[in-house]
Structures are given as C-alpha cells and as structure tokens.
Amino acid sequence: MPDAPARIDGTYEALPRMASVLEAYRARELPIIHAVRLYKEDGSNVDLCRREAIEQGLRVVAPNTEGAELVRDIRPAQYASLHAERLLNGEFQPVGRSEWAMYKPRWGAFYGTDLERFLRDRGVDTIVFIGCNYPNCPRTSIYEASERDFRIVMVFDAMSQVYEQGIREMRNIGVHVCTVWDVMEAVRSL
C-alpha cells in the first residue's frame, strides 16, 4: 500500500471509506465483485504500456504474491487467498457470502470477461463503483457498464484520484455520483 511498487496516491486514504461501503453490502448480502489485475512474470498478459517494465523484472500484482491479494482492509472475514490460476482462466472465485473476485485483463472489468453475463444471471441491473485509480480502471469500467445499459452509481469519496472534470463527465453520461454516506443511507433503507 503506501510502500507498494505501484502505489496510487489517495488509495490508502480511501480504504476506510471503501471498507464502509463493503461492510454495508455484506450486512445486506448484496453482491460484491472485486475486479483484480494479475501480471504474469513473463509479461504475456500485461498491457502494452506496462509490458516492458514487467519483462525487465518489475513485480506488480504477480500471481501468488501478497501484492496480488485483496488489500487486508477490504477483505471479507472468511477470506483465505486468491486462486490466481483459476482467476486467469476466467473463473469467478467466491471470497465471501455474495462476494467474488474476478480477473480483468485490461483497465475495464467487462473487457474480455464474462462479467456482464455473471451480473445479469444474478438479476443485477445497478452497479455501485468504488475502488482505486479513477482515471484508469473505475472510469473505464463505468463507461463499459454504461455501454451495457446498467444503472451506475459512482461513490466518489470511496475512490482514489477523482477530479472535478471526471465527476462532471460521469454525470453527463447518467452516472449517479454520490458519497459513502449516501450509499450507507440507501443500503440501510433496503
């Protein structure tokens, strides 16, 4: 986290707010998906913009390392570890009640994955986004969800690297932008 090789400013500080949203969802047994990246040491599955660094020995989210695990602050109580090989094969790994981890090969969680089918099979029509590095993964996943006609909620204070223009852009495509407090109130009313 603060000393991680791929540290993202603001992520460590947002973890308590992310954890609050996750705990509220867990209490109501609402579905949670953790979309994770895993970079094989040979770089064969790494985005072009990072491939050379991985091929030259940078170890970031390498399978079966602590850096590839869910961050302790957001793990469900019964969490053991991620099964990298199964995730890399496209499986959704149960990590808690109504909670799964999935591997995403690129910025967006829908690209090259079965996420849409997985959600539709469970009757999910609304996705609430929290997480790290808004300019890359959350923003891309939000656009992909919008392209698939999901209703979308962006919890801006449970996300790192959010900026005002990004919030305006999300609102312009129909995303409901809100706070952790708003989500907590909505979940309590279910």
UniProtKB/TrEMBL annotation:
Gene3D superfamilies attached to this UniProt entry: Isochorismatase-like
A Pfam family annotated for this UniProt entry: Isochorismatase
Signal sequence segment: none
Naturally occurring in which organism (per UniProt): Thermobacillus composti (strain DSM 18247 / JCM 13945 / KWC4)
Protein family membership: Belongs to the isochorismatase family.
Domain Isochorismatase-like: 8-180
Descriptive protein name: Nicotinamidase-like amidase
Swiss-Prot/TrEMBL keywords: Hydrolase
Domain of life: Bacteria
Gene Ontology molecular function terms on file: hydrolase activity
SUPFAM superfamilies referenced in this protein's UniProt entry, alphabetically: Isochorismatase-like hydrolases (SSF52499)
